[in-house]
Amino acid sequence: MARTFYRQSQLMLPLLEALEERTTPAKIGDLYDIVADKIDLADDTRRAKLQIGANSYNGFERSVRWAQQRAKLMGLMTPAEGRTWELTGKGQGALRKAMPGMVVTIFVTDRGAALYGHCEDAVGMIDDGSVNLIFSSPPYPLLRKKEYGNRDEATYVDWFLRIAEGWGRKLTSDGSVVINLGDAWRRGEPTLSLYQERLLIRLEDELGMKLCQRFAWQNPAKMPVPAEWVTIRRVRVKPSLESIFWLSPSDQPYANNRAILTPYSDSMRKVIKDGGQKGSTSPAGYQKDEGAFARDNGGAIPGNLITAPNTESNSHYIRWCKERGLPVHPARFPAEVPEHFIKFLTRADDLVFDPFGGSLTTGAVAERLGRRWIASECMLDYIEGGRARFA
Predict the structure, then answer these.
(1) Distance between CA atoms of 337 and 345, rounded to whole angstroms?
(2) What is the crossing angle of helices 59-73 and 8-22, to 10°?
(3) Mean pLDDT throughout 208-232?
(4) pLDDT digits (tens, 9 = 90+) for 32-47
(5) What residue ranges define each of the domains in the chain, with the CATH number in brackets?
(6) How many Å separate Cα 258 from the centre of its chain?
(7) What is the torsional sign of CA 163, 329, 182, 390?
(8) What pTM was computed for the model?
(9) Sign of CA dihedral 219, 221, 227, 233
């Protein structure tokens, strides 16, 4: 790495990890080489001098000391005996869940980067006007809290608006936003929250995000929940659909449905082979011209229903996590979901950003399809598990 210094936020996580590995309080000078190893710092950069006025300093070590001071101000490190330092309980927690204001690049590939930090901080690291597609499945507003940090219905819309307010300027002039949102049941009754509708209205009214089209993801393997209403009282059916909304600040975002054509049915292949349909008028009054649908366009235009079972149980990702004692992300979606929209709404080498990266499924699909990608995630263990999706 050809740098003589690093941002404090970039060095803070390696510094906390180095202090944790020492298991006992340590002087900052004892941690320099450990931190340098963690960020794979070249030796010449490690030793490079920084001239400030008449004084010469080791640029890297100076940056580590600044990171130590910032960690102290944030309550992550505290002085101990003999000019040594130790982690606080808050610092221990920061090794698993990102602190506000801290964004660290955990790993990169040929086409992408996995960022450890809260999405509202990570988005500030991205150039304005550079993202072609923001695709994500944010935490849903659920009744039962999950470890990945879902919000309750009452505060969800305000929270989401604060997260999304910086997205518009990051998009290209023809960029899109696609969000996957599940239903939220009201506590104690078999009725649904209208948070999705409220969110869509405010996204347009306050952020200028226009609704391009609604999609639904059908998961045939969906569990019959809420159990109280579906399997016990049996007054509701299994909710196998989740909503996906395609939005854009542009009224003409890039899209190409030729990139997501589906195979023709046997009956359609016969129509093409026979030279098209016979002229007729349908019961609804539509006129079918003689020879219509005779051209083979390579496939059929798909509908806005995406069927993809979420049945992953013994994948390489799951085995990787179990072998390393890492938690398996509990809210993964199948690769078919982001693949559909990445093919539909982006071109080769376009940039895809997933602000709620989870186990990095979106990044892995983007890389496989020849797109560039950035994913942010505030749970470090989920990023470490997501490494399994990349060579």
Answers:
(1) 13
(2) 80
(3) 94
(4) 999 888 777 778 888 8
(5) 8-94 (1.10.10.10), 104-277+294-389 (3.40.50.150)
(6) 26
(7) positive
(8) 0.80
(9) positive
Tens-place pLDDT, residues 325-369: 888 888 889 999 999 999 999 999 999 999 999 999 999 999 999
Closest CA to 304 of 382, 232, 245: 245
pLDDT tens track for 186-214:
888 999 999 999 999 999 999 999 999 99
Ordered alpha helix ranges (H), the chain: 8-22, 32-38, 43-47, 59-73, 89-94, 119-122, 153-164, 195-207, 227, 266-273, 316-323, 336-345, 361-368, 380-386
Q: From 238, 235, 243, select the one nearest 220 (Cα to Cα).
A: 238
CA-based nearest residue to 356, from 131, 115, 132, 7: 115
The answer to whether 358 and 331 have CB atoms below 8 angstroms apart is yes
What Å distances lie between residue 344 and 147, 172, 205, CA to CA? 32, 16, 26
C-alpha 172/C-alpha 174 separation (Å) is 5
Euclidean distance between the first and final Cα of the chain, in Å? Answer: 22
Of the ranges 15-24, 198-207, 222-231, 268-277, which is most confident? Answer: 198-207
